[in-house]
Specification:
Blueprint lengths: L2 H17 L1 E3 L6 E3 L5 H18 L8 H23 L12 E5 L6 E4 L3 E5 L3 H4 L2 H16 L2 H12 L7 H8 L2 H11 L13 H17 L6 H9 L1
Parallel strand pairs: 3-5
Antiparallel strand pairs: 1-2, 4-5
The chain binds zinc ion.
The site of zinc ion has 7 residues, from helix 5 and helix 9.
Amino acid sequence: MNKKYKVLLASSLIAVFIWACQRVPLTNRKQFVGLVSGEQMMSLSFQQYKGFLDTVKQVPASKADAQMVARVGERIKKAAENYLIQQNLGSLLDGYQWEFRTVESKELNAWCMPGGKVVFYTGILPICQSEAGVAVVMGHEVAHAIAEHGRERMSRAMMAQGITQIGAVAAGVATGDQRVMEAAGQVLGIGTTLGGVLPNSRKQEAEADKIGLIFMSMAGYNPQEAVTFWQRMA
Ligand SMILES: [Zn+2]
């Protein structure tokens, strides 16, 4: 490769990178998300979520625990929506299909997939102890979705697989491209859990904590609950 071509290639890669970056609401951190659209991310997420629900036992919506999770979810959702609308960022929620479910499982886990699919495992409820404790976890998980952490990780995973074309996810899903499916599995896999400790996700965890605290206080919960919750969790 001659030098001129290298320079051209490098500058066009930089151009793609800049184009593909956006700012996270509330923290203003610059993030690279451009290799997959928010819409594609949601559609992958909804498929995974449906598959997940087929394999688990849900707590019926009539039970107190499931009602509490749904109630907290609605309040946090409302707070996030209000905030984003005030900031002229309401379009970030286009395509969201919020759901708040509780499933029977001993695991200490909860997550919110891109597009607003929230699941709490019964195992984490004793650690939450109260509605405010549920709000700590809910705020954190909803923050991951609003900050588009899944999309950011998907873009990075694609890059790591050597996929750099914008629109490659749509094509890859259509053709069953193994590299795209693997990237999706890594990012959306149900194993991506509360307080995940993947080496490159610490920044995202700290960000979700910060945004989550803001959402929970906007929803009328005492953010101090977070301190004792994370102590119990540890
Ligand atoms: Zn987290």
